[in-house]
Specification:
Strand order of the largest sheet: 1-2
Largest sheet: 2 strands, antiparallel
Structural class: mainly alpha
Number of helices: 13
Helix content: 55-70%
Distance between the termini: 151 Å
Shape: elongated
Length: 399
């Protein structure tokens, strides 16, 4: 059953085709009537040749617009099967209407004002040459064409989601059933890879990547259809876009055969991952950087930020927190305790006592050396004592 938008397009196409038929009839009838009244002879060679040469492409475009825009209905019930392509869409369809309007104007104007009006028909090839130069010849040989404004916006903010992604996100938040197949596909693929659960933030991130991939594939299919002169992408355009995205037809067939054997009831629900155990309380030296910079923050904010530095705040929430700082940061060296005043006094007394003992030992040694000692070796060794005093220890050999 056709929806409201399809019925609206079908009604607009019927009105456009009816107006096209009336315009073809009125424009050609006016050409012959006005030429019969004001521009005799009726079948002059030059004007008639120009009329026939311009009438042929007009008929071709008329048949083309009628074939693509005519709605198809059920013969018995009259139900709408296909509304046809929208004849008011921009692009090639709009150019077809412009060529038909210019041809009608030149035909009626030449019969009313003169044959010089046919020079206005050169607007069509002139505009076509301008588009060919700006789209193909200029960028290919002269490189004078600047980037499109849409590309500038995308380059300025490549991470911003497109309008289609925003619509899909809004549908997912509202619980739209059209978003459930995507979530089901993600759950099946994760279970095939061996995952038993996942956090909601991880599921949302994967879903955004899937939506972005589907959006890029659709945009590429539309671009391929526009390059081929079609207003809507066909199945071949979609397959070609998938191949450009490293997804071949054989992979699609393999997935289709594998999923066809699995019933929906046999696929278990993908349960969210269990909550992690609460991290132990940090030590006194493990204060978070966020709490040191902003001491007025609440306990909730400190608990949410944990001990992640500011440069790692963009990481997903499902990743574990950093270990305590004392496990990877070098702590300061411990300093020796300062001695007290009483301890210094005791050490000074000990040093003075040692000094006095050493002085007494030195004095006793000097006194022992000054006393005369009997030389025990005088009778054995052949030497004699020399010097003015006999007590001196200066000796020489007695030869």
């Amino acid at each position: 059953m056709a929806n409201a938008s399809a019925k609206k397009v079908a009604a607009q196409n019927e009105v456009a085709i009816r107006n096209l038929q009336m315009g073809m009839l009125i424009a050609n009838a006016l050409y012959w009537i006005l030429r019969l009244l004001f521009r005799r002879p009726l079948l002059a060679g030059g004007p008639t040749s120009l009329y026939i040469l311009t009438f042929i492409p007009t008929v071709v475009l008329y048949r083309h617009l009628t074939s693509i825009g005519l709605p198809r209905k059920e013969p018995k019930t009259g139900a709408l099967i296909s509304p046809g392509e929208d004849l008011n869409q921009p692009g090639i369809t709009e150019w077809c209407w412009d060529i038909i309007y210019v041809t009608w104007g030149c035909a009626v104007g030449s019969s009313l004002l003169g044959n010089w009006v046919w020079w206005l028909y050169l607007v069509i090839p002139g505009y076509a040459g301008f588009k060919i130069y700006t789209k193909f010849v200029g960028p290919m040989f002269f490189n004078k064409s600047g980037p499109a404004p849409v590309e500038d916006t995308t380059a300025a903010d490549p991470s911003a989601p497109s309008k289609r992604q925003q619509k899909l996100q809004q549908r997912a938040e509202k619980g739209d059933p059209r978003v459930k197949p995507q979530q089901r596909l993600i759950q099946i693929q994760l279970r095939v890879e061996g995952f038993k659960g996942a956090n909601q933030s991880a599921m949302d991130a994967i879903e955004q990547e899937v939506v972005s991939y589907l959006n890029d594939t659709y945009e590429l299919a539309v671009a391929l259809a526009n390059n081929s002169g079609r207003s809507r992408p066909s199945a071949q355009d979609v397959l070609k876009a998938c191949e450009d995205g490293d997804l071949s037809v054989q992979d699609l067939k393999r997935v289709m055969k594998r999923t066809a054997k699995v019933s929906r009831s046999s696929v278990p629900m993908f349960k969210p991952a269990p909550k992690r155990r609460r991290s132990p309380e940090l030590l006194g030296s493990d204060e978070s950087s966020a709490g040191e910079e902003n001491p007025d923050t609440s306990k909730t904010e400190k608990k949410d930020s944990s001990n992640k530095p500011r440069t790692l705040k963009h990481l997903p929430g499902q990743l574990p927190d950093l270990p305590p700082k004392h496990s990877y940061m070098r702590t300061s060296t411990t300093t020796a305790p300062k001695p007290s005043l009483s301890l210094l006094d005791q050490q000074l007394e000990r040093s003075m006592l040692v000094q006095a003992s050493l002085q007494s030992i030195v004095k006793a040694t000097d006194a022992a050396d000054s006393t005369p000692q009997h030389d025990l070796l005088t009778e054995v060794v052949n030497w004699e004592t020399v010097g003015p005093q006999a007590t001196e220890n200066m000796k020489r050999w007695n030869i």
